[in-house]
């Protein structure tokens, strides 16, 4: 970089000497050009990330009284299905019993619902394999079964069999009242 | 091989133009006088067929874009309007949809031709790599294009394929969000896919220009794989190959037209005539037929990241093929062992394609054997896929590298002309004992 030989005259600023003013200008101009290019490229890249209005639609409220025991309601949240499942005591017991079974993505059933609300299981309804929507009540464990590539989830939404690597995701949500939740 | 130009401007205006922009000279040297090996067979006509298919896809695509609306609320309806109301819209859309399949059919034959006749070997490595880039761009374009009608298969296909990138550690999540422009496949995704689907064919066209440029430096390979030795081995491209390509194109168009006019939906999937519904996944998701081998490789691996890496690895392997095949003999005509392994490779690829369209756990023949191997019944498509996947990779990474060192090739002719002029039934008189030592 410091090599700025012009013509055949001996270079007074050979490598190892103090950098000349010309070297400084070269480096400064190069750095400015790189910085400017990055500053131009970043907006072109970042425009593809979720826009402000997309982010603004990120949370929903849902009335739980619509869901009978043993049923599941699917609502759309952030463009994806959200499972709201009202579990029966049998299903909860089955999930708790398997807390210490061989799990691919270990989690206790208790960690997957809000304290004292064991019957309400709120899950993002996309298979953690490649994003298909699992069907409720199917599979070997009575939870969900993904038709695309055959992943089995238990009644806690934990992955038990098949190619999916993770449990069904529990989104951020809170109980606004006993019968109302806010997701996101 | 390119030699000097033989173009002679005949009229005053051609002479005037030739000293300012020698574009007529360029066209003449490229498509008229270009010296071409005289023994090219019909497997060499697919380059011309592919150029035509790209042209058809561009023209029909630009026309469809005049009527299509890239919005989740209107996309499906606008495609149905094209089918029902736009003048000849049904014809243009069926030409475009089936044109994609014909394009892939031709490109697969073109690639298999390269594998058999060793056209990827020196000095044509760059030509081959440019072809691989075209194939990659074609796959991206085709996948994105299939999303645009916004049917059930469009939507869930887009979900599955974009989720492939989610398998990458750490950056996977942000990358999928970035690709989607939201929290799921939605309107921003459809909008950008439309933009890219319009852009990529022109990228392909640019790559095709480079591909033809890289072809015209060393010139065509030929069925013997022997270099052109003299002018006697070649004929001018026109009229010899313009006519031969033209005949092949006509036959190929018959096949294309039979799909367009008699069975335009046979290569598609009925579920794509159901509008996209993010809350319900079709029971059986399959990609278009030309992606099935890769889909089978993806599903053959029980690990998500492993499957994704292996699938992309299958495509990456093609790029390094010129350096994996150690044999100096190009054409498999003179490689009896390689020829056998080659046909098994073709079979393995077809088997993968078949497996990709089946449910992984279904039995291949009759009833499940009941014999479990690791995670699946031994008589299942997932195990058949695994066997074929192993062969697919072994062919490139083990068989071709080793065979080049161990195989004793048959005697090769001295030149392209020789087997024609002498009697091909007997060993050519000029054949040498160790043809692999020649360039």
Overall description:
The complex is a heterodimer of chains A (about 180) and B (about 450). Chain A is an alpha+beta fold. Helix content of chain A is about 20%, strand content about 25%. Chain A is elongated and about 80 Å long. The relative contact order of chain B is 0.12. The longest helix of chain B has 30 residues, at about 185-215.
Strand content of chain A: 15-25%
Question: Which chains share the greatest interface?
Answer: A-B, 28 and 35 residues
**What would the average pLDDT of chain B be, to the nearest integer?**
91
Please state the CA-atom Rg of chain B, rounded to the nearest Å: 24 Å
Q: What value does the Rg of chain A take, in angstroms?
A: 28 Å
Quaternary state of this entry equals: heterodimer
Summarize the structure.
With 184 residues, chain A is an alpha+beta fold.
